Amino acid sequence: MAPPRASEFSVSDIGLFDDEALSTFLDPRDGGVDPALLGVALQRADPRLIHRVIAALPSDAAARFSDSRAAAADDPAIASAQRDVMELLFWPLVYWNDPGDYEELISGEHLHPRLLEAIDLDGRIVCDIGAGTGRFSLAAAPRADRIIAVDAVPQLLRRLEAKASAAGINNVETRRGRFTAVPLPDRSVDIAVACSSFTTGGPHGGDAAVNEAQRVVRRGGDVVVIWPQDPHWFLQRGFQYIAVHGERTVHFRDIATAERLCSLYYSADAAAWVRTNNSAEVPFSVLGMSPPSDLCIKRVE
After folding, report:
1. Is 0.90 topped by the overall pTM?
2. Could you give phi then psi for residue 133, rounded to 5 degrees?
């Protein structure tokens, strides 16, 4: 279910993405945005957006999109399609339009140190896929030889670069790319990591993304998914599961920030909990989340 803030966005807001982001976030593979559903959702959209969407889609998906737009739908069907599309695209729209909120949301989610200890980072070349503003990259940089941070959203990568510069970290390189098209040659890194970014379906994951992560890792290296959405899904694909006892609380900057972010991105009940308890320390259970204290890892043969 999309967070409360989803009501602030409309389906036409996907036009705010540049062409590369449209291609990334409208990728229909592995349960991504269904082109036929998108066609219904955009039946009354600006023709300029329609042209950009068609150009962003693979040819077969573009044909399905166009056919769906040509078949008239009633208002309830259009509204339902728009809700479904926005549920898939809500977080990309937040990353693109409000990276500050995203950074505040993750700043209080502390990765357990033992998760980093479980990864063989020392002297390694590491690709951080879906790097965001550098939660994993900056923590791993002191141990790694080199980190290549890949993300589809330039706004997030600019924040990562600024944070690395301020911390005097000079072994992190940023590149724009997507889960299914990592901008690296075959067998070019020792480890590929996705930290709280890899889902079991598109556009942020799925089998195509697992295959792409394995492509860029040298034989004997590892693909690591920190804080997996569904560990069982990864176990079915040959990963091992590691869990540690971690913190059970998100540390927001202050009470006002906690209430605002809870009301926008979690639930009215979570915001009410903050008010009732007058606390910026919010249990993950109140937010309906598990804590960031597990990972899945697979050796590339």
Report:
1. yes
2. -95, 10
Strands 189-195, 217-226: pairing kind: parallel
Per-residue DSSP letters for 73-85? --HHHHHHHHHHH
State which fold the 4-97 domain adopts. Answer: Annexin V; domain 1 (1.10.220)
Structure-block tokens of residue 62:
């573009």
Q: 105-247+289-299 belongs to which homologous superfamily?
A: Vaccinia Virus protein VP39 (3.40.50.150)
Question: Which residue is associated with the tokens 């990591």?
Answer: 193
**pLDDT for 186-217, tens place per residue?**
999 999 999 999 999 999 999 999 999 999 99
Question: Which residue has tokens 């004997």?
Answer: 220
Could you tell me the sign of the dihedral formed by the alpha carbons of 216, 132, 199, 91, in that order?
negative
Residue 153, phi-psi category: left (phi > 0), alpha (psi -120 to 50), beta (remainder): beta
Question: CA-CA-CA-CA torsion for 265, 271, 277, 279, nearest 10 degrees?
Answer: 40
CA distances from 176 to 21, 130, 215 (A): 10, 10, 17
Determine the residue type at 19.
D
